[in-house]
Amino acid sequence: MPLDRKSAPNDLRAFWMPFTANRQFKSQPRMLVAAKDMHYTTSDGRQILDGTAGLWCCNAGHCRPRITEAVQTQVAEMDYAPAFQMGHPLAFELANRIVDIAPDGIEHVFYCNSGSEAVDTALKIALAWHRARGDSARTRLIGRERGYHGVGFGGISVGGIVNNRRVFGSLLTGVDHLPHTHLPENAFTKGQPDHGATLADELERIVALHGAETVAAVIVEPMAGSTGVLLPPKGYLQRLREITRKHGILLIFDEVITGFGRLGSPFAAQHFDVMPDMITCAKGLTNGVIPMGAVLTTAEIHDAFMQGPEHVIELFHGYTYSGNPVACAAGLATLDTYAEEGLLTRAAELETYWQDALHGLKDLPHVIDIRNMGLIGAVELAPIEGQPGKRAFDAFVRAFEAGIMIRITGDIIALSPPLIIDKDQIDELIGTLAEVLKQTG
Ligand SMILES: Cc1ncc(COP(=O)(O)O)c(C=O)c1O
């Protein structure tokens, strides 16, 4: 018996697309129907080279057999298990496996379903941790201008991207922001920029303004991805760590993008050799296949909650799908794939080749900066006067037509290919982008 539908299946009206120019898309859809390894297939049968690992998440490439099989097997064996007051083995196994590759000192994993939830979870743990230790005046949260911490109210409050904040009311109170680290004198730097470490000292000013005893946590992306790839100046993260430690403030690294090999180490904390108190992650945790996020914490954070009567819940927080069995199966198979193929360090091996290719775009029209590290890169274009974002958007549409997937934020093109990319594919990606940029008006 056919369903009584109000619309045809190929009618694009009903789906209100996220972070999308809906009207442009629906007039000229970019429809993806299949994916394998480094490529997507479009509905009109074209192959698109993936220059962005989907949305910074398919670090092992697409439809990898181990992950596909693990998900298929798990969904047939146990599709769901209650997340509260119940457990299943894969959730514990995956937590241990994450701890194994995380920076020394990280010992616990709290599951959620996305980067946004991981951020809100970490902020809540920070507030509750101080309170558990009798330090309940510590309620202020500090983020950074141009930071992206997802779209929950906590995340947009500490985040610093104006379009993600301005129409959503007054947000959380008691939030302050560090200055961003995008300095013109660092233009065309290869790797970490030389200038800007002292921007971390602004934290001293903010702490002096409010009193250290009121500040709970600082959250930053060790490398800011979504705003258009801003690398930490040399010494900057070390300085943030020193200042937060000095004042008893927790430091949270949002590693939703940098986690799982993007910079050439499992986590950016290891790459920069700076140890935060908590790490948020998502995306590459399951290779993007099943939604999953996590907050990683030290024993010091976790153990402070393990007090009081044993039958009482220690942290009143969690999600219906925290540690979902199918997501855990995907996570375990993803970590196996990363390990078998050496993907968590592969970005370091390809970094010089990637960097040289990317900086080869320097003299193309409207290019005002190029930034890179690991297997991540950004090409910043001068905006068209009065039409910010238009130049990069046109490049994005043309790039898709030319067979490559790139990402844009404002007039910045960001690249973050799957970590399985080879040198010929780097040449193809950057060569096609060069042709697109040559035609950019
Ligand atoms: C650093 C960072 N934090 C949080 C998020 C939000 O993740 P999600 O879209 O899974 O909620 C993102 C997404 O790009 C991110 O880059």
From TrEMBL:
InterPro entries: Aminotrans_3, Aminotrans_3_PPA_site, PyrdxlP-dep_Trfase, PyrdxlP-dep_Trfase_major, PyrdxlP-dep_Trfase_small. Keywords: Aminotransferase, Pyridoxal phosphate, Transferase. Pfam families: Aminotran_3. Belongs to the class-III pyridoxal-phosphate-dependent aminotransferase family. Signal peptide: none annotated. Its cofactor is pyridoxal 5'-phosphate. It comes from Paracoccus stylophorae. This is Aspartate aminotransferase family protein. One of its GO terms (molecular function) is transaminase activity.
